[in-house]
Amino acid sequence: MAITVKVMRRPTRDTSYLRATLKGMSLTFQHLFRPKVTMEYPEEKSTKDWTISSRWRGTHRMLTDEQGRAKCVACGLCPQICPANCIKLVPGEDEAGHRYPLIYEIDEFRCVFCGYCQEVCPEEAIHVGVHYENSEYSRDRFVYDLERLCAQTHPVSTLWDPSDPKGE
Amino acid sequence: MTFLLVSSAIKVIVVFTVLMLGVAYLTLAERRICAWMQDRRGPNRVGPYGLVQPLADGLKNFLKEETLPPHADRWLFLLAPAVSFVPALVTIAVIPLAAPLPTPWGDVPMVVADLPVGFLYILAIGSLGVYGIVLAGWASNNKYALLGGLRASAQMISYEVALGLSTVAVLLLAGNVSLSEIVARQSASPFTWNVFPLSLAFGIFLVSAFAETNRLPFDLPEAEGELIAGYHIEYSAMKFSMFIIAEYVSMVTASALVTSLFFGGWDIPFTTWDNSAPASVWKTAATGAMFALKVIGFLFLFIWVRWTLPRFRYDQLMALGWKLLLPLALLYLATLATAIWYLHEPLGWTYGTRFALALFGVNLAFIVPLVWILDRGRLIGGAVERGGA
Asked: Testing the interface with B: which of A4, A13, A16 to mutate, by most B Cβ within 10 A?
């Protein structure tokens, strides 16, 4: 017995193969001359349709004061809150009693880029950055020391503001 | 004799080189045009505007690993790419490419081999192409490849019939099977181009040519959605490349054939200086460029259709070939033969613009009801109840 297929009753203008073909051909031809949506990445990194969000959480940056010293006071909050345990901090203290980091290292491979370190920092010293191009020739280059964190120049993340959820 | 041999050898080398280069750039053109139609840019990294891309593709294919499936029929497996590659290439030999080129030793016709049976040669060699695909499908010892090969044989044999019958009309009108003669007959005015007196034959030929070259909407032998890659699924590296080159060469040949049979070959429209007697280099160059332009136009059509239309269902493909194109071609041929006889004998007209336009009227009498029937979706269409709507 032949298999019966339920078929729809539809008007000719919806089902005509010829008309559909011609319509399709004219559509594809028009698309030949439409502006292209491709962003040619290495040359252009943002277009008028797309720019990276200011809330992007990328590789870290340590801000510095006027004398070029890291703002960090080695309070130990960031290694405490870090869920990935990627921050290594050894605190030190100078003669005047100011605390500063002897060793401050972030393992960017362990980091999950949650941004808690930036949220928790009382001195606004450590920040996650708006930055995403991280290629190196060896794995140990991904452990950023204090000097390297201070030398980063990319913009810092604004994170998510609960009072302004849409970023306006 | 020496002159013939030397000139033929030069023509073979030149045509082969131009054809292979053209095919390489055709793959690039296909990728670029496809990208533009999808609002993308396409390959533009290798060289300026991506123009060296075909070279990179070729190099990649040469360096890739050749694989040989353990259960394949070794000799047929190795033979199949060549069997599909060679017929695709040799078909172009009888197509006249330009006006004759004058040399100190006499005029050289711009056709590799001006066979008196030119058109029959094309039909014969064109049918050989299916062997490569069927052998590839069978020798791979793979169910998908075999299905692809089976589909290819069924499809190509079905459409070969319609293709042959539609061109019989051209032969009737030209009274000759030599392609040079067919081209010469069309040169009087743009209205004597066979596309006017034989427009329906042109339509049938074009549809069949798409099916013969396995291009969308007739690419069932490959059908990546159902058969993964069809007949060339087990092939890698240069052997795979040969199938692709063969497909593109058949595209070029089909375009050149449509141009020669229906669009006046190398004839430049609205002028007669290009086909009058004294041959000159300038004339050869201009007509050659004209021929290339027409061929490129049809190649664009091939690409354009591919990136627009979806694939036919298998039963639709067979229905279109056997239930529509074949009876239509037969009926058309009978009518047209009568019309040509009537215009020649009782009316005593000679072939010219008036003759062509009269035949065009006969074609219109076919095309109008045909379009009306097709438009109702009676033969190919979506899921519509028979007799409904």
From this structure: A16
